[in-house]
Structure formats: structure tokens, C-alpha cells
Write a structure and sequence with these properties.
This protein is mainly alpha-helical and 481 residues long. The protein has two domains: 18-414, Ammonium transporter fold, CATH 1.10.3430; 441-481, no CATH class. 65% of the residues lie in helices and 3% in strands. It is built from 21 helices and five strands. The chain has helices spanning 11-14, 21-49, 55-82, 99-102, 113-132, 141-163, 169-173, 181-199, 204-208, 215-234, 242-270, 275-289, 298-322, 324-327, 335-353, 356-362, 372-377, 381-414, 423-428, 430-434, 474-480, and strands at 85-87, 90-91, 453-455, 458-462, 468-469. Strands 3-4-5 form a three-stranded antiparallel β-sheet, with no helix packed on it. A two-stranded antiparallel sheet has the order 1-2. A hairpin with a 5-residue loop joins strand 4 and strand 5 (468-469). It starts with 10 loop residues before the first helix and ends with a helix.
Length: 481
């Protein structure tokens, strides 16, 4: 039964003439799909992909980042990313909590600012959670609590304003980043790798052997990540239109092709298909298509899937293993390869395959945004080379900013709290960091490591991996209990 509006309520206040209800409903749906990629998508993926002793810590890092980003986003982050220009690369800080502002029309869309704030928050949140993937298994949680708001404020907002805001430097220059290949994936891959350098590696035994504790849970998270990308790339046109449909279809075509390519390479070179490899191939496909999803044709999406399933595979399986420099940095979830390399590849492909007509739907000016291959056909090579040059310049900009700012943030945090957990805490994992563990499998939920068994007069406990450890002092046993 429909509830009638109060007689004194003006319908134009809740649905003004400029508002498109279908666009607004789709944008809110797309934002929620992106949010589900993080919570519970990456929570499950990280929690299942790490050793049992790190399941809680890894999942909690993602959950904390999601909440912290939203808090900072509505108080100052959104306007620093999309508000009034402070300098060419940065917006002015300000809150987005006043209803007069939230009910105004959002830039580029037929819906209110409130919808856009929510949509862009989901993108900012997943960026921080992706960075967490590079430092799982050893970063001090207190350091992570400081890292999230600092990196959001001094790195994410800087890149987002420069590339996505209509007032930003690279936006005015004409860069193509349809849904975040640069702002989100390249940035998180570089920042994660840089943070991993400053935090330091996991324990040697964890680096040598780090099996997933639950592959099925990991796959559930991966599935949410894949299907959630419907909102990730489908929300970029900020309208429920034909470009949205194209972006969504291209996203899934590229992803499936990338996954199959990665699995085939695993079979050819390692003689065994890998589930973990399939998830990595899925991820690189999703990331690669992101900067170009709605501005390339289907055949280009398929080609990008082949590229994204092979080039990051090569950098991860061949280049990384032969490079002493890369091996010095312990990137737990290979964020450098799956996000930075794949995101850069997608940005370059956008400069090659972007269709002028499709670009005109997303950006202003039919003859301004032209992929190099189409510029050859149009006999306007100069414009195509310019577009490719802008894409490469954007990659360089994002890399430099994130290496520099992430390093400064890590050095500043190190003055307050250690970036890295102690060796003793890393031996134990979740129980030391949070006093909790993912799976209480002994008896009726009792945790064996909190009890003391006597063998020949010595006290022993079970570590998070199920192995007997040496005797603890009375103080240590009390702390564990």
C-alpha cells in the first residue's frame, strides 16, 4: 500500500525537475556493488588467501579501512577530490554533511551530490584496501590505523582531483581514465609496493610458504570482486545509458579472456592449472579494462584480456623471480603486478584503442580524444600520438606521487609507532594482534593455545598453525590467556 505524501510537502524538494530517478537508482546500486567488492569481497579474499594465523588481521585491515575512509570522506576527502580548486592538482578541504549541498545537482549527473559522495567513497575505500594487500602478514595494526587517513588525505585526493575532477590538471589536458585504472589501481599498486618496502618483509618461513587457509572462501571473495565490477565500471558514465551497457559487457569479456589466458600459461609452463593463478588472471583482466571499459569496442576488450592475462603473468612469474630488486620487497598479494602493471597496461591500451565516437559520449569534443589506431585511420596521427603521450605522462605522474607521498607517510608514522609487528607477534599472528583467531576448531570452540599442557614439567602451547612451541614464561602465558 502506497503511503501518500503529506499535503504540505512540495514534490520538487525530493525529486526536482533536473533529477533522473533511473540514473539516481542505478548510481546508488553501482555504488553498493563497489562497496560489496570491499565488504565482504576483499575481506573474504584476503581472509581466505593468507595463512590461518593472519585471517582475522587481514580481514580486519580491510574492514577498518572501509569505515575510516567514509568518516574522512564526508568530513574533508570528497571536496579535496572533487570540490573547488586549491591548486592545479588539489581541491579545497570541506565537509559534505549539509543538506543544502547534498541536495544540489552533482557534476555531470542528473542526481544529487549525496549520491555522488556515496559513489566516490566506495572507490576511495577499495583503493586503501588494495594497498593493504601488499603489507598483509606483518604490518602493525596501529600503524595501519594512521596510514589510512593520511594516505587518503595526501595521496588519493591529489590524484583523484588531478585526473577525475573537471577542474584538475590532467582532466583538462585530456587524459582517459574511464573508471580508475590510474586513480585506483596504478596508485594502489605503487603505494602498496612502496609501503611494503618500508614495512619490511614477513618472516622468512612465511615468505617461503604462505598457503591459503581456505581457498573456497577466497573464491567467494573473488566472485564478489568480479561481479561487483559491474558497478565499478558500469557506474563511471554516471547514467543508465548505452555506454553503461557497453562498459559492463567489455568488463566481463576482458576478465574472462584474461582468466583463461593466465590458466593456459600456467598449464603450458607449470603443467598444472592453478586456482590462485585463475584469480590473479581474473584480477588483472578487471584492472586492465577499467581505464577503457566504455570507450573501446568489444574486439579491443578481448585483445586487452589476452594482454592482461599474459604480460602481468610474465612480470610476476619471470621478471620478478629474476630481479633481485623486486625480490627485496615483500608484496604479499602481488599488488604491483595485478594492479600497477595491469592498470598501466589498460591506460596505454586506452590510448591505442579508444574510439572517438565513444569518447564523445564520456568526454567533450569528438576530435579531441582519439586512440592512436583510429588516428591512423582518420589520418590525424598527431592527435593519436598526443593521446598516447598524455596516457604515459599520467602513469609517470601517479607513480612519482605515490612513491614520494607513501614514503613520507611511512617515515612519519614510524616516528610515532613501529610500522612492523615484532618478531614474536608475527610468529603468533592474530592472537597476538587482536586476541582473536579465525577458526576455533578444538572441542566446543575452546582455543587450545590459551590452555596449558604439562609434558615432563614443561609448559607448551599450540601456535596458530597448529605446531607445538617452546615453553613460555608465566608472564607470557598470562598475556596469551
Amino acid at each position: 500500500m502506497a503511503i501518500p505524501l503529506p499535503s504540505n510537502l512540495d514534490p520538487s524538494l525530493t525529486a526536482p525537475d533536473w533529477m533522473n530517478k533511473a540514473d539516481n537508482a542505478w548510481q546508488l546500486t553501482a555504488a553498493t556493488l563497489v562497496g560489496l567488492q570491499s565488504v565482504p569481497g576483499l575481506i573474504l579474499l584476503y581472509g581466505g588467501a593468507v595463512k590461518k594465523k593472519w585471517a582475522v588481521n587481514s580481514a580486519f585491515m580491510a574492514l577498518y579501512a572501509f569505515a575510516c575512509v567514509l568518516f574522512c570522506w564526508v568530513l574533508w576527502g570528497y571536496r579535496m577530490s572533487f570540490g573547488d580548486r586549491l591548486v592545479g592538482f588539489w581541491g579545497k578541504a570541506g565537509a559534505t554533511l549539509d543538506e543544502n549541498y547534498l541536495f544540489d545537482q552533482a557534476y555531470g549527473g542528473f542526481f544529487p551530490n549525496a549520491t555522488m559522495v556515496y559513489f566516490q567513497f566506495a572507490f576511495a575505500a577499495i583503493t586503501l584496501i588494495l594497498i593493504a594487500g601488499a603489507v598483509l602478514g606483518r604490518m602493525n595494526f596501529y600503524a595501519w590505523m594512521l596510514f589510512v587517513p593520511l594516505w587518503l588525505t595526501f595521496s588519493y585526493t591529489f590524484t583523484a582531483f588531478s585526473i577525475w575532477s573537471p577542474k584538475g590538471f590532467f582532466s583538462k589536458m585530456g587524459i582517459i581514465d574511464f573508471a580508475g585504472g590510474f586513480v585506483i589501481h596504478l596508485a594502489s599498486g605503487v603505494a602498496g609496493f612502496t609501503a611494503a618496502y618500508w614495512v619490511g618483509p614477513r618472516l622468512n618461513k612465511d615468505r617461503e610458504r604462505f598457503p591459503p587457509n581456505n581457498i573456497l572462501i577466497m573464491l567467494a571473495g573473488a566472485g564478489l570482486l568480479w561481479l561487483g565490477w559491474t558497478g565499478f565500471n558500469g557506474g563511471a558514465p554516471v547514467a543508465a545509458n548505452m555506454e553503461t551497457s557497453l562498459a559492463i559487457l567489455n568488463t566481463h569479456v576482458c576478465t574472462a579472456t584474461s582468466l583463461l589466458t593466465w590458466v593456459i600459461l600456467d598449464v603450458l609452463f607449470f603443467r598444472k592449472p592453478s586456482v590462485i593463478g585463475a584469480v590473479q588472471g581474473m584480477t588483472t583482466g578487471l584492472v586492465c579494462i577499467t581505464p577503457a571499459a566504455g570507450v573501446v569496442q568489444g574486439w579491443a576488450a578481448l585483445l586487452m584480456g589476452i594482454f592482461s592475462g599474459s604480460l602481468p603473468w610474465f612480470t610476476m612469474m619471470v621478471v620478478h623471480k629474476r630481479s633481485k630488486l623486486l625480490q627485496k620487497v615483500d608484496d604479499t598479494m602481488a599488488i604491483l603486478h595485478t594492479h600497477a602493471i595491469a592498470g598501466s597496461l589498460g591506460g596505454i591500451c586506452a590510448g591505442l584503442f579508444a574510439v572517438p565516437k565513444l569518447n564523445s559520449f564520456m568526454y567533450s569534443g569528438y576530435f579531441r580524444y582519439i586512440g592512436l589506431f583510429y588516428s591512423l585511420q582518420m589520418k590525424d596521427v598527431k592527435t593519436g600520438l598526443r593521446q598516447l603521450g598524455i596516457q604515459c605522462l599520467g602513469i609517470l605522474f601517479v607513480v612519482i606521487i605515490n612513491v614520494l607521498v607513501t614514503s613520507l607517510i611511512c617515515l612519519a608514522i614510524r616516528l610515532i609507532v613501529p610500522l612492523r609487528m615484532s618478531e614474536e607477534d608475527m610468529e603468533i599472528g592474530d592472537e597476538a594482534a587482536h586476541g582473536e583467531e579465525a577458526y576455533a576448531i578444538w572441542g566446543q570452540g575452546d582455543k587450545l593455545e590459551t590452555s596449558i599442557s604439562k609434558y615432563n614439567g614443561n609448559s607448551y602451547y599450540e601456535d596458530a598453525e597448529g605446531g607445538a612451541k617452546k615453553k613460555k614464561t608465566a608472564g607470557q602465558v598470562e598475556m596469551m590467556a
